[in-house]
Fold each of these.
Amino acid sequence: MRVRFAVAVLLASLLLVPSGGVGLAAPARDTLVYASDISDMISLDPAVAYEFSGILVAQNIYDTLVAFEGEDLTTLKPRLARSWTIQDAGSAWKVTFKLRTGVKFSTGRPLTAKAVAFSFDRVIGLNKSPAFLFKDVAGLKEGDTKAVGDDTVEVTLPKTASPQAFLSVLTFTVGAVVDPDEALAHQTGNDRGEAWLRDHSAGTGPYMLERWDPESRAIMVANPNYWGAKPKLSRVVIQHVPETSTQKFMVSAGDADIAANLTPEQAREMVSDANVKIQRGKLLQLVYIGMNAKHAPLDKVKVREAIRTAIDYDGIVRSLLRGEARKVQTIIPEGLFGFNASAPFQANAARAKALLKEAGVGGGFSVELLLPTGPAPGGVKWSDIAAKVQNDLAKAGITVKIKETAQAQLLNVYRAQKGQLVMILWGPDFPDPDGNATPFTDYEAKSIAWRNQYNDPAAAKLAKQAALETDLAKRRALYKRLTDRVLHEGPYVILYQPTTRFALRKNVQGFVWNPMAFAEFKTVSK
Amino acid sequence: MSRYILGRIASTGLVLVGVSALTFFIAHVVPGDPVLVALGEHAREDQIQAYRRAYGLDRPVVVQYVIYMGRLLRGDLGVSIRTRRPVAVDLRQFLPATVELGTAAWLVAMMLGIPAGILSAIFKDRAFDHLSRIAALIGASMPVFWLGLLLLGNFYFRLHWFPGPGRLDITIDAPPARTGLLLVDALLSADPIAWGNALRHLILPGLTLGLFSTAVVARMTRSAMLEVLYQDYIRTARAKGLSAWRVHLWHALRNAMIPTLTIIGISFGNLLSGAVLTETVFAWPGLGRYATTSAVSLDFPAVVGVTLVAAVIYTLVNLIVDLIYARLDPRVRYD
């Protein structure tokens, strides 16, 4: 009797186990599945999006007037504008764009110069996260962009703004052109279509948005009205997969074509998978230590030089990060115009001690190093890098007290100029050297230089001069002078420039990661 | 009885006020600035100030609380600092996925835990009992995160028995959202393909999340059953010649269920609020992940919103459990 009962209960429980053989639903031939953590996606409106995943989608559904293509962030290419000129108009810069003809929005309406003026004014009027690129970097106000006829756009920039930096800003989603009629047709109150464009699209890009389910997926389909070569894949699914091990499973199983957030270990494990290839992507971030230039003894240039001299950069890049980064010691990252490859510092404890002695702190000193919790770019924990720095500096007689704290709290301390040594990262807001040069050198810009109480008017002046220079050879020379100066006098230890990595199914071709942290899917095939 | 229910519902209101106050002030004690988190490191001072003003964060905390409570009483949960959408909209979006997952896990716990507990008690100190107790120990101590990856790695990746992460295959269109519960929505729109696919997607995360509760329910059922099985009325029932089925399932289980029920009720609340790791591993767009991301971003309107939902669920489940007590045990009366 008992046995019969037991069997009955077991059978009932077994009902839960499904019959085997559920097939994997591999994505269709014309669909690309891109597995990534998209929990930061809050809007796909190009005037609002300023998060990595929002920008990734917006870059593919909208076009900009000019663009940097592939990995090259030094040569501007025409996009919606077929040509452009920069003119010194006395009291202002006049940047004139001639628009490509025959371009239509995904809505079917033609692209006009008025649409460009509307889009630029819209960014300024809405004043969301990316608006500072127009307002502060380019010094634009509503009305400064004018349509002259149907195919000419004239932008008037104040003389204080850099025309080159403005063109770089225009490659970013903030410079995307939206269909004004569509945006206004869906206007709520005075929002110029902001609420609607959050999860709809009205652009001229190769794709248009089919749907976005927050924390789940965003689906793009080919835009039938696209002016350029038809995208090779007609559908792109950006699938939200927050856990990187799960991303790895999905690519190995063929359920995803690209995994975007693998750790270095996971990427190494996948090398043996015959169906998968690993591809590196460049980034423009710099991982650095800011030294508070008003906090004794960091206020002495030689003490800061001693710290830079003592650190074992090669050890960090080779042993800790296992090659997931490159050694960069100047404030403009590799990949941007004006990069200075000079890297004179490498683990020289004797020289560091001598410098400390010259600075009058031969007996060493103690200092606090503030760093965020969690993983740093490149895949290791911030605390591991800090431990390495602590060890290197100890050899020069400097005692480092490590203080790990949540990033939100760290920023509070850093922004209040209360850090001593602060380890953190910086990525430029737009792909122009000025996106780093001004924050790192201009105290008045209230950015990194200000946080580290580094007030060097000569450096700030050089940065300004370089930003405004329109002659590229002269501009390059100015950035060389500036980066050399900050390399030795500034309050920064630039530790490394990280790379990122992707796992791709073997059949995926044409995927190129733009160092500004997005990819154009129109070139991808499989 | 109805007076009792009304009283309990009224006291739930007080609990919610307490919970919201506590969460609100805890969220404000935490160092760090939600605006900096929302706008990022590069934000300029004027943007930060404008954002603070827009969300009323420039006022003293007490004033913020009064304003918040005023809105809350009108049913307005405020706007999330991170997603910049009304919290109520976010909750409506993310709660159903978690309810579906939590219910699946809860069913797993009931359907595996109760039979295992009963059999363990009947076969006390025999092979099945030892096996089930070891399994329960492992189930209760295994990290959810690891278990999830283990199940995914084996049953999805190696054996291909189950689909991968997410609520539906990428190739399948979601049925029109009416309740947000995919299984229900698929039924309402008579879409058997989506229904079957959603069900298959639910099994691995359901097992992952449900295993801990299965272990707890199994252990509780076992000890409750053991206590009952040696009582005089069971001996009498056996002496009367009743079948083992009838004795165990009718006479013993019914009484053993009373303490077990409390555990089942609490575990349902736990499943809904504790799903974050399972949701992360299985890319499940639910409330657990929303809560964690919000907490990390110091997004207190969202955190308070989630806490209130969790509080409502807990109090409702407790109320239901109390009511079922009365059905199971005629000695329990609420008047």
Amino acid sequence: MAAGWQSLVNILGPDVARIVVGLVGILALVQVNALFLVWLERKVAAHIQLRIGPKEVGPFGILQTIVDGVKLVSKELITPRHVDRKLFVLAPIAIFLPVLVSFVVIPFSEQLQIRDLNVGLLVIFAFSTFNVLAILMGGWASNNKYSLLGAIRSVAQNVAYEIPLLLTILNVLLWSNSLQMSVIVESQAKVWNVFWMPVAAIVYLICATAETNRAPFDIPEAESELVAGFHTEYSGMRFALFFLAEYSNMLIVAAVATTLFFGGWKSPPFLGFLPVPGLIWFLAKTYVLIFVVMWVRWTFPRLRFDQLMNFCWKIMIPAALLHLIVYAGIIKLIR
Amino acid sequence: MTTEMLEPITEQTYYLNMGPQHPSTHGVLRLFLKLDGEYIIEADPIIGYGHRGHEKMAESHFYEQFLPNSSRMDYLSGLLFNHGYVAAVEKMAGIEVPPRAEYIRVISAELNRISSHLLWFGTYVMDLGGFTPFLYSFDDRENILDILDRISGSRLTYSYCRMGGVAKDIDEEFIRATRSFIQRLRSRWDDYHNLVTKNVIFIHRAKDVGVINRELALRFGCTGPILRAAGVAYDIRRAEPYSVYPELDFEIPTGTQGDALDRYMVRLQEMEQSLRIIEQALDRLPEGPIKAAVPHKVRPPKGDYYFAVESARGALGFYIVSDGTPYPYRLRARVPSFGNLQVLTDVLPGTLVADTISILGSIDIVVPEVDR
């Protein structure tokens, strides 16, 4: 292992070697995470709905997603007539690639971070905006009215919810004085941000749910209204890429929430004596947050489009702005 | 609807065919929508995709032979349709039904009404995007299907009623299962209300959405929960009493303004009233025969007859013309969903696509019943 790493460093140089190994690691993580999350989602849903969920393939049905994945890969890639072929093919790739980039800066533990850029947080949010573009591409290229409606909804929703999302993040940035992920984690060494800015954490989680198009904000792919929204016309692996991107996005927003508000890879207060590595803490926090998002999804009905926008512009943005002003004052006083 | 009939599309508007294959049009309804963005300018429900010619079929069948068809019109409340058809023929031929049979009919019909409302509850919330209540209500509904399966041998299309009675007597096990189901469902109301009725998103999605007021409901001949949600306490079980309903004590729940939330509440309260009816009917269940002596082939005297019952969706009437032969000369079913569906043309314009689903769901149509 160590010898292999050394030879890789000798060939590529330390920086490139780190990136190569990191990207391979990310690809593996994204796949395994999606496999696990789809299984978890189905199990959580089943539990909430008084069912058993997948149980046939593997212990507790954990291999079910792999079997489903094999089915999706083996399916024919149908490109309907009347679609804009270039954009149609490009959209699933465009939605998936930014996801990979975002993982580069996420600090999974003190050492386990591919690149600790000094604009780490900015990178994540810059690339997560690509999401909208890809959905718009897919929805427009499909040449289907349901897809187009889904794409329009998605753009309006994501653009609107990015504002309160970024406003809440500013609170954290004021405290940490840096966009660097490791510094943000270090700034929470004494007390996690969630404990003294809980409103910001809640606003972030709501906006993140909206950003990832999860219920109750899943109006771009509202299956009872728009069949499947922007990915109605997609099949096989192209559809799977949309799916993969959705679950990877969930992981990213939850990982960012962990980093920003829940102390990243640091152990919870009073549990620091436990010999648990930071990676475990980080993943545990992240998946608990994902569980909360799933819990909400399987409990609430879906908002209507105009209610969603009203909620954003009339409640979330003023609340986030007010919160920012108050906390800017508080931080100024503390410092 | 051909393309020549459409106005030229201006830049702002476009047409959308919602259905006949769409997750939320509940079968094969096609909604032809003219949209401006997400706002609906015109809506035209186009029916007929599930037409099987039941009324024409009746003309070439004995009265008894048509019985299975009746429960296939509305597959969600088949027993109520059975009851309506059989009662109509009994009225024509002047058949006296033994009291025990009437009570069994009422018990099974009310169970069927609850199962239909439970299914509606699940699918309506699913239309609004909440998937979990669907499985809760289906879990409860499964009990009813099991209970009715015991006596009729089928789960949806029962064909349980017979001319002059019912097919099979109920036993102690049926009564025990029904009573335990009543208890079970009553204990579930809290879950339903906590999960759905009190949910702020649900209230926002249903309140003031799709208002079908009294005047509109009466103009379109809407019946059932839609009419009652508009504040008109019209229920065939009380307005034109039949079977043993006059002997039973139950209320007719009504709403005030006729929006989707009112229709939701009316249906939920109706389920509770149905439970009351079943309880009373079980308590009073008389002994005796379950079927009157009826000739092998019913030959109603010449004339035309109409008989209505309250189905889960509203007034269900059978208008039958007899020419004295064992075949009906003409049979016409006045089905509730047909009138209830047409009101969409007036209600939908001005709403959003998402509301279309909410309104359509709250009206609770069964397309094969509309098309027959």
